[in-house]
Amino acid sequence: MSPTSDIYDVLVIGGGPGGYAAALYGASAGLSVAVVEKEKVGGTCLHRGCVPAKEFLETAAVFRTMSGASEFGISASEPKIDFSVSQARKQKVVDQLWKGLSGLMKSRKIETIEGVGKYVGNGRVEVSDGRILEGQNVILASGSVPRSIPGFDIDGKIVMTSDEVLSLEFLPSSVAVIGGGAIGCEFASMMADLGAKVTVLEALPQILTGVDKDIADVVLRSFRKRGINVHSGVAVSGHTPNPDSSGTTVHFGDQQSISVEAVIVSVGRRPNSEGLLGEGSAVEIDRRGYITTDPYMRTTEQGVYAVGDLVATAQLAHVGFAEAIVAIKHILGEPIAPVEYSKVPWCIYCHPEVAFAGLTEEAARAAGLDVVVKKDPFGGNSRARIIGETDGLVKVVAEKLPNGSAGRILGVHLVGPWVTEQLGQGYLAVNWEATPDEISQFIQPHPTLSEAFGETVLALTGRGLHVG
Ligand code: NAI
Q: Does the Cβ of 184 fall within 6 Å of ligand 1?
């Protein structure tokens, strides 16, 4: 189809990471593409999620650096925060990226159609203004929205989700964070570093479920050291707002309670699929609201794909990108390997940061694998000492060969300074199923934080330099 035709090669519902990646990748391959978007392209990630949250976490990092300046012999007055300025800076960063993305889409001749899209079958999408668009292929990418829990109605003042927290003009003095997952830990870390009294209430036995226990324990210790109260294994039963609306008392566990100015509910996100499918659609949706797909992101209706948070896979922007590329390559009829979900990179930007790819030690053992494990704490790393950030470690899990030596690398787990920027080589190792013998031949620059990975892998060959 030519770009001027009424029927697009690819019609996308939703302009978040899944949708815009499909559009950009498809347009670069010469396909005519339109995206139906009800708000601004960029989606949750750019406007209400990853980007603004990380920008605030950087504000927290600046605050920490200033608080610790005297250790370096630099005198500065006690840092104070004007959160409205932080909010304005965050918005500037988001707006710049949004303009960049919009411009890029325009330059690739991707048509952005404003409105709510509903898939009504046979390649047709009904827009809220009544227009009917048609695509040879349709990609559903309407994303996800925050979940809440009974008894916690979101009012945006006392009870908030990530949507509201990221638009705050002031910082509450005390906060209860319900849910100690990625979002909960990022907010808890950011708010505590900026001076709020933070309590995390997590239903499961540990925070950051799914993260290797040794890694999650480092975060827990750091949180406690910084005054964050973490209660895990507790059920939250409700809350009683103060009569003067100045805050609320949250009830949890065995008749425990805590009075706070604000509550952040971060108990997961649900697919944004309500009203997405019309009568004529043959796309299957499961009882939790996720769209059913095969490994090529095909739904149960031919020519219709679904990607991103709408699908029951890891809710990560970069997984949305990867799924979008799979869908477009499938549309193009090119050879394509499906996303290997067990090996995707995970990055959590709380302080200290967490990054990993592949199997945790527990998961590898639970899968019946015999493993060899080596760890290198950042305490012995020169660069970590130089920057004064020694909380953290590198942990590499490898398959144990019959002769007892380490074979293919199964998982790389990092916690500590800037580890989200250090995961690259660990990710490659896991996905290439490389062995310690192979990787240890590569030279690691010294002094760097990332050489801790090389040290750990060298130790797995049985001949470590600094790690035994
Ligand atoms: P999550 O599923 O990661 O964590 C939610 C936590 O809330 C779980 O630990 C769960 O046990 C707990 N929980 C559920 N109900 C509860 C209750 N009634 N009381 C106490 N605790 C309760 O969800 P989260 O953190 O909201 O993130 C949503 C999605 O966004 C996740 O899939 C996450 O991976 C993704 N995300 C990833 C980020 C990253 O990789 N940096 C950052 C932010 C989000």
A: yes
